[in-house]
Amino acid sequence: MAPLIFSPTEDTPEISFDSTTGKMSIGGTSIPENARKFYDNIIEWIGEYVKSPSANTSIDFKLKYFNTASTKYLFDIMVLLKEIMKAGNTLVINWFYQEDDEDMYEAGLGFSKMLRYPFNFVKY
Asked: Which DSSP symbol is given to 17?
């Protein structure tokens, strides 16, 4: 599977997914005009990845801001990735937040609770 790489824009986050290493990251701002259009390719890539994942998968969420429309797609990504564990593989979700950004910390906590999966919370 080819890596999935998107450079960040003013409205969309940087995406870096590598199926051979199992390392993934989403960082920056996610306020795309059309969230579905932006995230469809990402969801499709992850859908293929979970069919034959790396033994160890980690994803870093290092978002500065995301809008309501992005919330659904970010959660969809997490739900898909959680499927990796059904095959007996390891999944680590790292949620980065700035020390003074309580809202971003709370957002990660909410995702973790909805997903019923522990995140690593990392201040920076």
From this structure: E
Instruction: Please name the residue ranges forming H helices in the chain.
Output: 35-49, 68-82, 102-115
pTM for this prediction:
0.95
| Relative orientation angle of helices 68-82 and 102-115, to the nearest 10 degrees | 40
Going residue by residue through the chain, which has 124 residues, state the pLDDT in tens, using 9 for 90 and above: 999 999 999 999 999 999 999 999 999 999 999 999 999 999 999 999 999 999 999 999 999 999 999 999 999 999 999 999 888 999 999 999 999 999 999 999 999 999 999 999 999 9
4-123 CATH choice from 3.40.50.1100, 3.30.420.40, 3.30.750.24, 3.40.630.10: 3.30.750.24
Among 76, 65, 82, residue whose Cα is nearest residue 13:
65
